[in-house]
Amino acid sequence: MTYTPMLVVHIAGGMIAVLAGSIALVVRKGSRRHRRTGDVFVISMLFMASGGAYIALRKSQPFNVFAGTLTFYLVSTAALVVMRKPRQNGRLEFAFMLVALAAGITALVFALRAPNKGSVIGYSVFAAIALLSAAGDIRMLIRGGVAGAQRLVRHIWRMGFALFVAAGSFFLGTASDPVMRKSGLRATIFTKEIRATHLPQVPVIIIVVLTIFWLIRVRYSAAYRTPRPQMEKA
């Protein structure tokens, strides 16, 4: 098995992202620990997503190109929304909206031309997420930005979904990430017996549950309805 520099970047970025993202998901939103681990998560995810997309492009794997592009977009826009002041937009938001729109339309075309049912479902899911995200971007641009709980909800769901992708690639590698499947990495982490217990699926499920928990808490808790200084720097 040959580890190219870009494959090392992809794997290392994913491992660091899973660790940092898990910590950021557990700790209180807006705390110093959340901000620090969130910064590490963003940087490592951008490396993982761009590295994976590049490898997939070189290997003519359009499905993984979409996965890498969508993940890069979600992390970037999630980070950007808390880097901006409340109700503030810029050219980057418009540019990322175009990226999501282009990715969604292209994925939809691939879904219509897919040769088998599995590919149709996969491309359709990517198309739906990308187009819904682009619709959210358009709505935000028209309204002149977001603030308060809406700002944090946008941040959390996009970061949470990106962490789900990273954790899925790491713990469920051969099933969800053909780049890692071809590298043979997963077999060196979990034995056949451990995979048979479904234990590798547990962290992925926990991430989904915690993301939903924080979305509900931020959306409906009075503590997050009024923007506070520490929240705006989350």
Map the helices and strands.
Elements: H1 5-26, H2 32-58, H3 62-83, H4 91-113, H5 117-143, H6 148-171, H7 173-176, H8 178-183, H9 185-189, H10 192-196, H11 201-220, H12 229-232
What does this molecule look like?
This protein is mostly helical and 234 residues long. It folds into two domains: 5-88 and 145-232; 91-144. It has helices at 5-26, 32-58, 62-83, 91-113, 117-143, 148-171, 173-176, 178-183, 185-189, 192-196, 201-220, 229-232. α1 packs antiparallel against α2 (32-58), α1 (5-26) crosses α6 and α2 runs antiparallel to α3. The longest helix has 27 residues, at 32-58. The protein is globular. Residues 174-188 and 227-234 have low confidence and may be disordered.
Summarize the structure.
The chain has 234 residues and is mostly helical. It has helices spanning 5-26, 32-58, 62-83, 91-113, 117-143, 148-171, 173-176, 178-183, 185-189, 192-196, 201-220, 229-232.
Give the class from helix and strand content and strand pairing.
Answer: mainly alpha
Shape: globular
Number of helices: 12
* Uncertain residue ranges: 174-188, 227-234
What order do the SSEs take from the amino end to the carboxyl end, as H and E?
A: HHHHHHHHHHHH
What Rg is obtained from the alpha carbons, in whole angstroms?
18 Å
- Whole-number mean pLDDT: 83
Q: How does the major sheet shape up? A: none
Strand content: under 5%
Kindly report how far apart the N and C termini lie. 41 Å
Helix content: over 70%
Q: How many structural domains can be distinguished in the coordinates?
A: 2
Strands, count? 0
